[in-house]
Specification:
Elements (H helix, E strand, L loop, with lengths): L1 H5 L3 H10 L6 E2 L1 H11 L7 H15 L7 E2 H5 L2 H46 L10
Antiparallel strand pairs: 1-2
Helix pairs in contact: 3-4, 3-6
Length: 133
C-alpha cells in the first residue's frame, strides 16, 4: 500500500489522509460520512440526508466496486478532492475564530483586571494597598 500511495503528489496523499481516518489505505462509507457531517451542515443539509449522500458518493467513486475508496479512486475523483478542500477550509476558519475568541477573552480579562484595580484605587484613600475601615 505504501508504494501505491507514494506515487501520488503530497497534496493528494495529504487530502486522502483526511478521509482515511484509520490509516488503513482505504476510505469507508463511515469515514466519508464523518467528513461530510463536518462540511455539509454549513450548507443546510441534514444529518439523515448525509448518510444517503455519503453512500451515493462512495458508490460513484468506487470504480472497482470494492465497497471502499482507494487512493487511486480518490486521485481521479475531483468531487472528493473538493470535499476535502472544503473541510480543510472550514477547519482553517474555525481556527481563526478560536484565535479571535481567545484574544477577545484575553482583552476582556485584562480590562476587567484594570477596572477592578481602578475601583480598588478609588477606595484606597491613603494609597497603602489596603482598604481601611
Amino acid at each position: 500500500m505504501g508504494n501505491m500511495i507514494s506515487r501520488y503528489p503530497k497534496e493528494i496523499t495529504d487530502m486522502f489522509a483526511v478521509l482515511d481516518r484509520d490509516n488503513d489505505g482505504q476510505v469507508s462509507v463511515k469515514e466519508l460520512q464523518d467528513v461530510m457531517l463536518q462540511v455539509y451542515p454549513t450548507y443546510g443539509i441534514e444529518a439523515y440526508e448525509i448518510a444517503d449522500l455519503s453512500s451515493m458518493v462512495l458508490r460513484s467513486a468506487d470504480d472497482d466496486e470494492s465497497g471502499v475508496i482507494s487512493i487511486n479512486e480518490f486521485a481521479s475523483n475531483k468531487q472528493l478532492q473538493e470535499l476535502v478542500k472544503e473541510k480543510l477550509a472550514i477547519e482553517k476558519r474555525m481556527q481563526k475564530e478560536i484565535q479571535m475568541l481567545k484574544m477577545t477573552q484575553k482583552r476582556a480579562g485584562q480590562s476587567d483586571t484594570a477596572r477592578i484595580r481602578e475601583i480598588f484605587d478609588a477606595f484606597d484613600k491613603d494609597k497603602s494597598g489596603y482598604l481601611d475601615s
